[in-house]
Design goal:
- By secondary structure, the chain is of the alpha/beta class.
- It has 6 helices and 5 strands; from the N terminus they run E-H-E-H-H-E-H-E-H-E-H.
- The chain has one domain: Rossmann fold.
- The protein has a 5-stranded parallel beta sheet, sandwiched between helices.
- Helix 5 links the parallel strand 4 and strand 5.
- Helix 3 packs antiparallel against helix 4 and helix 4 crosses helix 5.
């Protein structure tokens, strides 16, 4: 079992907690580009922040996600991404109207199944890197539930449950995908 797997979805839906659980189980994980960018920009008084310059932020997230994918190719086994290239491209497309997503249909592919965390208001919180409200998070989730299938991914919504059960669910699905031969096709990278 090998490949790059995206965990995306609603902000505040438990993605980072799930990635922490997968890392605890020994899997390689990649932190969300957006959070890394926000931390860097806030530390350096930069302007590529989603609430200041969403276009610069999305372009920077695309570049970072491409670097992350390149680094992950050297990994063996599953590598789990907290968001990724498609999320950044969807954000850029929403901010500019540029048809960015279509350019990714056959390039820079992740595993065929993308796991999305649904809106979960009971656990949603703001923090220094997440300043937007729950309504904005839901709008982003709706964009992503349309964006991934638009470019050929299968979307699987993760259950609202404890993190151990969520991780088990995700790993069982990947094992089934692998068994059925639907894992990421390296020729589509």
């Amino acid at each position: 079992m090998t490949g790059s797997v995206v965990i995306s979805g609603c902000s505040g839906g438990g993605k980072s907690t799930l990635l922490d659980e997968l890392a605890r189980r020994g899997y390689a994980t990649v932190e969300e580009p957006g959070r890394r960018i926000v931390k860097e920009e806030l530390a350096g008084h930069g302007a590529a922040l989603p609430w200041v310059d969403p276009v610069a932020f999305a372009r920077r997230a695309i570049a970072m996600a491409l670097e992350d994918q390149t680094l992950a190719e050297a990994q063996t086994g599953w590598t789990f991404f907290d968001r990724g290239l498609i999320d950044a491209a969807a954000a850029l497309q929403a901010a500019t109207g540029e048809a960015v997503l279509g350019t990714l249909r056959n390039r820079h592919r992740y595993h065929q199944t993308v796991f999305l965390t649904p809106p979960w208001p009971e656990i949603y919180v703001n923090d220094p890197e997440r300043r937007h409200g729950f309504e904005e998070a839901v709008a982003e989730y709706e964009r992503l539930t349309a964006a991934y299938p638009e470019i050929g991914y299968e979307v699987l919504i993760l259950p609202k449950t404890d993190v151990e059960t969520r991780a088990d669910f995700l790993l069982r699905r990947l094992a089934a995908d692998n068994f059925l031969g639907t894992k990421r096709d390296p020729s589509r990278s």
